[in-house]
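> forwarded from #structure-qc
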């Protein structure tokens, strides 16, 4: 079996089904087999209604007293009813699933799998999945539950997997470090486990496989990087001391250490490949400015790539004021830049030493005479191809030094594993004078009484407010207030305030315009999706409300909170929750700490297996199986990678492994 063949090669998958699968990223046989269950329903473990306790439950019973109504406030359909067994009854509710009204026969029994919780003062089963007792096999096997994608629901995908049950035996081995058939057995046992223990053992192998490929890719990237040539940048302590004497503040110890690591890297003739990570406001830009100054003084050129025009403009204003008086010609190159041709001529002939820009830096007609340092701000916002395109603008046979920056604190275990090809510098302390952000958890029902007075006082004092929403438009399938609906409501409640909204579907020019108006205080309250998570610096914004806070990851909540507290004024963050449930540990940890690195470690422990790095880094690497909190698997994978790299010539034997490794190299590399 060739796992890279089209999924149409599998039984039961014709062109129509293949097109549907492809829509959700399942194109090859490998994609199909690696679309793993997210959990399992075990109907043999069903509880009686009298036994259930809050949390995930499975009950068996008949449905009665089914009714349907519409909730006008959020424009959704609500189906309510009662499940009865011989021990009692329990309330059940489904949101925006009106088809449930016709699904059940009153004389038949069904399994209901869902969350038993307190909601609006009453306990009940919320939006459970269902299966007729007559439909469920009576064996001890578990029923896998897959992520639903539109018409491709869990039951549909399970039927397709079952059609290919006999093909699992044909799955070829992949890793040279495990026994024959380990991959085949793991994939079969994760789709068709006889017990939860069997499923967990299968997942452990697949997690090991994923980490092995990731670590090997990073090591191979680092080896390749060592073969490249770069121009050495001589370091002068006296010159840097004169530079620092001009600053109105002193560097933190963390900034001094990071700068020294960068200067040492740039003196080498192999290209620097360093990640500078620090919490919002920790001073990454100043460290980058020092590196840019050293390169420019030594005759090289520097390019700083930012994800948005407004952020590029902010960098330009700060850095040009710092560097231009020192004779470093600095320019801004974004889509709206006028007289581009003239500016690009100056860049090409080396007259401009430091260029700050967006994707405009990547166009073919943007050429450099001596590009010696590339700085990428919020590096996860750019694809590999974009980064490579900028790196290749250095003269032939020479690679520029690379400094990637991120404001997303990354746990140490992730650094070592994902960034095997990178050196990492950490800014773990904040500049003096920054006041900690006061964080509170508030229920939506309390907002008018407790939150509105603070918003009113903030706007009256001439300060600004962010209000973050999950959705752009009203969606009857979601119990969330949209950006547009919240904006309309706030305009009614605060008629004298200047209120606008912002979201990711707006054109870039529109987004830049709105953020520019907010930065210049032409807007008092900005209602937005997470598009503002990393962006422009607005020191005058002192209050942020994050609605439906339970629906965000801890790292993302911390990033959003970092939109305020960027000046010398006291700032506040309100985490708004719906319903009556006790706030999660995630929200309680955020309320307790403003240390991004501590929260990143907590996030890692809380979430376990899943899209750890994907959530931290906006999908730059979407881990499907592995957990970076499992240090034993990480150590085993690292040790095995070390062994296999002792004989790198043997790698040519593992053709499929190397094909997959190339995919991972495209994800992890910054060169």
């Amino acid at each position: 079996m060739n796992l890279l063949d089209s999924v149409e090669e599998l039984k039961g998958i014709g062109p129509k089904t293949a097109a549907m699968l492809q829509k959700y990223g399942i194109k090859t046989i490998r994609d199909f087999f690696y679309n793993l269950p997210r959990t399992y329903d075990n109907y043999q473990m069903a509880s009686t209604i009298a036994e259930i306790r809050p949390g995930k439950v499975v009950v068996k019973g008949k449905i009665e007293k089914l009714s349907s109504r519409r909730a006008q406030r959020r424009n959704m359909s609500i189906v309510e009813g009662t499940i009865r067994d011989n021990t009692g009854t329990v309330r059940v509710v489904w949101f925006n699933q009106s088809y449930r009204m016709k699904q059940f026969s009153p004389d038949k029994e069904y399994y209901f799998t869902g969350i038993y919780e307190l909601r609006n003062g009453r306990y009940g089963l919320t939006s459970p999945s269902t299966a007729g007792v007559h439909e469920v096999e009576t064996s001890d096997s578990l029923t896998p539950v897959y992520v639903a994608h539109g018409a491709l629901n869990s039951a549909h995908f399970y039927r397709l997997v079952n059609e290919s049950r006999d093909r699992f035996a044909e799955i070829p081995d992949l890793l040279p470090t495990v026994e024959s058939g380990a991959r085949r057995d793991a994939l079969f046992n994760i789709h068709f486990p006889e017990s939860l223990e069997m499923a967990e053992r299968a997942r452990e192998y697949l997690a090991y496989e994923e980490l092995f490929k990731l670590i090997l890719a990073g090591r191979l990237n680092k080896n390749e990087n060592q073969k490249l040539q770069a121009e050495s940048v001589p370091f002068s302590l006296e010159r840097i001391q004169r530079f620092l004497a001009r600053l109105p503040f002193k560097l933190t110890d963390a900034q001094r250490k990071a700068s020294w690591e960068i200067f040492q890297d740039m003196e080498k003739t192999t290209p620097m490949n360093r990640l500078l990570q620090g919490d919002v406001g920790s001073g990454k830009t100043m460290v980058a400015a020092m590196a840019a100054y050293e390169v420019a003084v030594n005759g090289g050129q520097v390019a700083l790539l930012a994800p948005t025009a407004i952020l590029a403009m902010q960098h330009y204003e700060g850095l040009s004021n710092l560097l231009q008086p020192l004779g470093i010609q600095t320019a801004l190159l974004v889509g709206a830049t006028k007289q581009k041709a003239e500016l690009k001529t100056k860049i090409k002939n080396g007259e401009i030493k430091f260029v700050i820009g967006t994707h405009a830096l990547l166009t073919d007609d943007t050429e450099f005479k001596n590009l010696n340092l590339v700085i990428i701000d919020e590096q996860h916002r750019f694809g590999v191809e974009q980064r490579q395109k900028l790196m290749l603008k250095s003269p032939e046979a020479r690679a520029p030094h690379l400094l990637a920056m991120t404001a997303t604190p990354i746990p140490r275990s992730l650094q070592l594993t994902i960034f095997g090809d990178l050196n990492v510098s950490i800014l773990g302390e904040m500049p003096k004078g920054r006041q900690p952000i006061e964080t509170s958890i508030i229920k939506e029902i309390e907002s008018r009484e407790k939150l509105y007075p603070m918003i009113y006082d903030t706007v009256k004092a001439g300060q600004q407010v962010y209000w973050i929403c999950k959705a752009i438009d009203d969606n009857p399938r979601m119990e969330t207030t949209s950006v547009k609906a919240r904006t309309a409501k706030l305009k009614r409640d605060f008629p004298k305030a200047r209120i606008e909204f912002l979201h990711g579907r707006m054109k870039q020019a529109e987004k830049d315009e709105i953020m520019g108006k907010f930065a210049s205080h032409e807007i008092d309250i900005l209602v937005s999706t997470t598009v503002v998570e990393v962006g422009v610096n607005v020191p005058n914004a002192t209050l942020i409300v994050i609605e439906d806070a339970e629906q965000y990851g801890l790292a993302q909540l911390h990033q959003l909170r970092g939109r305020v507290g960027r000046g010398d004024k006291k700032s506040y963050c309100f985490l708004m929750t719906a319903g009556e449930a006790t706030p999660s540990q995630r929200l309680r940890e955020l309320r307790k700490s403003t240390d991004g690195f501590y929260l990143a470690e907590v996030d890692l422990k809380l979430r376990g297996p899943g899209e750890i790095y994907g959530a931290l880094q906006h999908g730059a690497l979407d881990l499907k199986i592995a957990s970076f909190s499992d240090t034993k698997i990480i150590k085993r994978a690292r040790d095995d990678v070390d062994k296999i790299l002792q004989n790198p010539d043997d790698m040519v034997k593992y053709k499929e492994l190397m094909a997959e490794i190339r995919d991972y190299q495209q994800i992890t590399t910054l060169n």
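QC bot note: Residues 608-622, 667-671 have pLDDT under 50 and may be disordered. The first strand starts at residue 39 and ends at 41.
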